[in-house]
C-alpha cells in the first residue's frame, strides 16, 4: 500500500510538473517581447542590460514547439528527457534465450541471487549451515529466502527492494501483496523466454545490454564454437579475460590446448584474436584480484630482450620507450614467456598487444576480495580499498589503450575521479555492487558530474537474471534527482 501511495504521489507530481511546462509554453507564446529572459541579472531587476532599466532582449518562440527551459521548468524538462532516453547497459552477466540454460530468469533465480543469499544468512538460524542450504534444490533455497526476507521481515534493503520493483513492474503487485510465491512462479512459468526478455528490455528502457562472455569456460564456448548461435541485437558481447590479469597461466594453457593453439605468447595472442573475430566484443574485461599490483619497472617484461638499445643512463622508467626499448623485432626473445609468467608479463605480452591491435578498450573491475567467506559461495566475496597508483602506472605505461574502470570501494571513488581527469585513456563507469545503493550512487554521481562533466558512464546494472534489468528504473530515479 505504501508503494502504491508513493507511485500515486509521484504520478501526481509529474502531472503538476507537466502542467507547469504547458503554462510556461503558453506564457512564452503570449509574451509581447517574444518570450521570457534567458538569464536575468539579479542586479538589474530581471533585465538583461548592464544598467538598471536596460532594454529587454527579444527572444523568438521556438518554431518546433519545443519546451522553453526556465528555472521553473528545468527540473521537469530534465526528468522527462532522462526518463525517455534509451539506456545502454554497459555491463551485465546476462545471456540471450538462445544460450539455453545460461540465461537465468524467473523468481527463483532472483531470490537466490548472491546479494539476497548473503542477506539471508545475516539472520538465518545458526543450525542451518551454508553447505546444507546450497545442497537444497534451487526452489527450496528460494522458499527459505522468500520466507525470511519477504514474509517474516519487510523488504527494505536495496537488494530486496529490487525484487519488489521487478514484481510490481511486471504486473505482479497483487501476488506480492498476498505474498503468494506459488502464484508468482505460475506467472513466470507461462512466459515465453524470448518474449519475456523483450518485455523486460522494453519496460526498463534498455536499448541493448553488454554481456560478459568467458571463452575459457567450456559451457559458454559451446554457444560460440564450432558454430556461433545468432541472438537478438538487444545483447552485445564482452570478452572476459580474468586468467591473464590473475596470472593464471595454467587455465590459459588448458584453453589453448583444447582449441589447438600452442601454449606460447603468440599462441595466446592468436587465441584471443580468434575470439575477438568470433564474438565481436565491445571491450575486453576482467576483475582484478584483491592483491593485484602493477610493477612500475617495465624492464621486467623484457627479460632477455634483444631489442634493448641502452639503459646506461638514468631515465624515467614509467615512460614507454624511455629505457631504450624499440618495437619488438621478429623473433625477439622479449616477446616469449618466462617459465612461470605472472599477471604483469601476461598483460604485457598478450593482453595489451591484442587490445592495441584490435582497438579494444580494457574494462577492469577493481576492489573485490574473492571468497572472503568461502562458505557463502559467490555471496562470500568481500571488498578491499585498492591502491589506485597501480592503475595510474598502467595508464602511463599503455597510453594507447583505453581503460574502463569501476571500483568496489566508496573510498576509492574520489581519487578515481581525479585520475580520470588527468588521463584521457581512463573512463570511469558505474556504481558497482557494494556501491550500488541510492545514497552512494547520488554522492558519487554528483562528484563525477562536478569534476568530469559528462565524461563518465553513470551506472550499469550488473544483472545476472533478465528481470533484474527492471531495477534500472530505481537507479534512474536517483540519476534524475542528481541531474
Q: Identify the strand order in the major beta sheet.
A: 4-5-6-9-10
Q: Give start-end ranges of low-pLDDT stretches.
A: 32-61, 309-315, 322-326, 472-483
How large is the radius of gyration? 27 Å
Shape annotation: globular
Would you list the SSEs in sequence order as H and E? Answer: HHEHHHHHHHHEHEEHHHEHEEEHEHEHH
Amino-to-carboxy terminus distance? 29 Å
Number of distinct helices: 19
Textual characterization of the structure:
By secondary structure, this protein is an alpha/beta fold. Helices cover 43% and strands 7% of the residues. The longest helix is centred in the N-terminal third of the chain and has 29 residues, at 2-30. Helix 11 links the parallel strand 2 (206-210) and strand 3. The protein has 19 helices and ten strands. It has helices at residues 2-30, 74-84, 107-111, 114-121, 130-135, 138-151, 158-169, 173-177, 181-189, 193-204, 218-221, 242-246, 249-259, 265-279, 343-358, 389-397, 413-422, 438-452, 472-482; strands at residues 87-89, 206-210, 235-236, 239-240, 284-287, 362-366, 368-369, 382-383, 403-407, 426-428.
Name the descriptors:
alpha/beta, globular
Provide a short characterization of the protein structure.
The protein has helices at residues 2-30, 74-84, 107-111, 114-121, 130-135, 138-151, 158-169, 173-177, 181-189, 193-204, 218-221, 242-246, 249-259, 265-279, 343-358, 389-397, 413-422, 438-452, 472-482, and strands spanning 87-89, 206-210, 235-236, 239-240, 284-287, 362-366, 368-369, 382-383, 403-407, 426-428. The protein has 483 residues and is an alpha/beta fold.
Amino acid at each position: 500500500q505504501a508503494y502504491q501511495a508513493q507511485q500515486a504521489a509521484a504520478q501526481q507530481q509529474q502531472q503538476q510538473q507537466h502542467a507547469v511546462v504547458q503554462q510556461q509554453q503558453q506564457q512564452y507564446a503570449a509574451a509581447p517581447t517574444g518570450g521570457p529572459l534567458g538569464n536575468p541579472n539579479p542586479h538589474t531587476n530581471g533585465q538583461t542590460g548592464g544598467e538598471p532599466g536596460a532594454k529587454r532582449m527579444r527572444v523568438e518562440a521556438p518554431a518546433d514547439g519545443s519546451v522553453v527551459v526556465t528555472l521553473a521548468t528545468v527540473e521537469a524538462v530534465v526528468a522527462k528527457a532522462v526518463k525517455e532516453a534509451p539506456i545502454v547497459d554497459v555491463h551485465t552477466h546476462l545471456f540471450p534465450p538462445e544460450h539455453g540454460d545460461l540465461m537465468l530468469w524467473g523468481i527463483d533465480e532472483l531470490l537466490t541471487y548472491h546479494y539476497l543469499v548473503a542477506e539471508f544468512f545475516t539472520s538465518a538460524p545458526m543450525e542451518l549451515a551454508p553447505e546444507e542450504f546450497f545442497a537444497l534444490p534451487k526452489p527450496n533455497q528460494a522458499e527459505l529466502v522468500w520466507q525470511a526476507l519477504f514474509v517474516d521481515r519487510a523488504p527494505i534493503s536495496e537488494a530486496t527492494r529490487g525484487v519488489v520493483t521487478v514484481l510490481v513492474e511486471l504486473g505482479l503487485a497483487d501476488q506480492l501483496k498476498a505474498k503468494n510465491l506459488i502464484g508468482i512462479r505460475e506467472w513466470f512459468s507461462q512466459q515465453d523466454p524470448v518474449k519475456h526478455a523483450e518485455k523486460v528490455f522494453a519496460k526498463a528502457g534498455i536499448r541493448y545490454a553488454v554481456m560478459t562472455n568467458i571463452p575459457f569456460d567450456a559451457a559458454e564456448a559451446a554457444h560460440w564454437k564450432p558454430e556461433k548461435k545468432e541472438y537478438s541485437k538487444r545483447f552485445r558481447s564482452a570478452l572476459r579475460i580474468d586468467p591473464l590479469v590473475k596470472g593464471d597461466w595454467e587455465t590459459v594453457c588448458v584453453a589453448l590446448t583444447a582449441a589447438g593453439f600452442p601454449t606460447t605468447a603468440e599462441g595466446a595472442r592468436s587465441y584471443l584474436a580468434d575470439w575477438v573475430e568470433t564474438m565481436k566484443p565491445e571491450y575486453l574485461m576482467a576483475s582484478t584480484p584483491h592483491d593485484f599490483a602493477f610493477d612500475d619497472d617495465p624492464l621486467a617484461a623484457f627479460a632477455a630482450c634483444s631489442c634493448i638499445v641502452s639503459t646506461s643512463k638514468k631515465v624515467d622508467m614509467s615512460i614507454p620507450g624511455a629505457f631504450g626499448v624499440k618495437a619488438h623485432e621478429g623473433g625477439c626473445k622479449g616477446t616469449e614467456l618466462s617459465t612461470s609468467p605472472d599477471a604483469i608479463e601476461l598483460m604485457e605480452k598478450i593482453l595489451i598487444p591484442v587490445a592495441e591491435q584490435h582497438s579494444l578498450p580494457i574494462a577492469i573491475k577493481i576492489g573485490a576480495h574473492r571468497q572472503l567467506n568461502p562458505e557463502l559461495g559467490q555471496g562470500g566475496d568481500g571488498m578491499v580499498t585498492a591502491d589506485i597508483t597501480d592503475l595510474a602506472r598502467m595508464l602511463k605505461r599503455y597510453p594507447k589503450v583505453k581503460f574502463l574502470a569501476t571500483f568496489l570501494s566508496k573510498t576509492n571513488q574520489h581519487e578515481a575521479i581525479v585520475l580520470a581527469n588527468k588521463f584521457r585513456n581512463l573512463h570511469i563507469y558505474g556504481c558497482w555492487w557494494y556501491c550500488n545503493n541510492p545514497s552512494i550512487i547520488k554522492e558519487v554521481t554528483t562528484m563525477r558530474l562536478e569534476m568530469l562533466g559528462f565524461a563518465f558512464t553513470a551506472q550499469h546494472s550488473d544483472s545476472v537474471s533478465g528481470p533484474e534489468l527492471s531495477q534500472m528504473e530505481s537507479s534512474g530515479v536517483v540519476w534524475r534527482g542528481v541531474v
